[in-house]
Amino acid sequence: MSKANKSKRRYTVRTADINASCGVIEQDKKKYGAILFQITYDVDVDITKNAAPLYGSPHSSDVAIVMVGVGILGLAMTLAMGVHNLVLLIASLIIAVSGSTATRNWENVQAWALMGTNLGASEDDVRRHVVVTPEQIIIEGPGAETTCYDLHKIKRVRHNANGCLVSFGRGKVAYFPASKMSVDRLRELEHFLEEKKVQ
Question: In the prediction, which pLDDT does 171 show?
């Protein structure tokens, strides 16, 4: 294939993508009115891995560290006492090992917790279409499901270089991966959501 044909093919593909995107924007405007941001992505391993550190409290890993400390303290006290209580010894050992395992595998623990949210609600239909209006975040997917969250109910907005996760509490989240948005649009979105959270 010549360079001219390759270039023409790339232009045709880009034009088709732009036209499809414009069609989605028009459909969203008809359904939801004013649209500030919109994004479509498939939930895959990379998306989950990038979203997981943003889910939960920033200090939630401290629980695992406390478990290790309590377990070790229980082991030391049990062994130091003249009378050995086998139940206390085993319970302390289980707590220490569980805390240590969770601490070493914290990313996996976070990803597992994230799978309990609406982001991990379906293994079959992984397509998500997220629309932000001046008053709501609307998530289409999995399947024909459409969920609306009012912006005044935002509990937490966390973001990093990989994306932005908005939490509404009780496993209700909206995720905006950085790989699907320009840096400027992602920063605008983060700023907008932070302002809405404060109000």
Answer: 81
- What value does the CA radius of gyration of the chain take, rounded to a whole number of Å? 23
d(CA 170, CA 121): 13
Would you state the pLDDT for residue 132?
92
CATH of the domain at 167: 2.30.29.30
How many beta carbons lie within 10 A of that of residue 129, not counting itself? 16
What residue ranges of the chain have pLDDT lower than 70? 1-24, 57-59, 82, 120-123, 125, 198-199
Same domain? For 66 and 42 the reply is no
Instruction: Enter the tokens of residue 53.
Output: 């550190």
Degrees, nearest 5: CA angle 24-157-129: 15
- The token duo for 131 is 């629309």
Residue 129 and residue 47 share a domain:
yes
Half-sphere exposure of 119 (CA within 13 A, CB side): 33
In this prediction, residue 94 carries a pLDDT of 92
pLDDT of residue 11: 44
Query: Helices 61-80 and 106-114: crossing angle, nearest 10°?
Result: 120
> Can you give the residue range of the structural domain that contains 104?
61-112
* Total domains, the chain: 2
What is the model's pLDDT at position 17? Answer: 43
What SS3 class is residue 54? helix
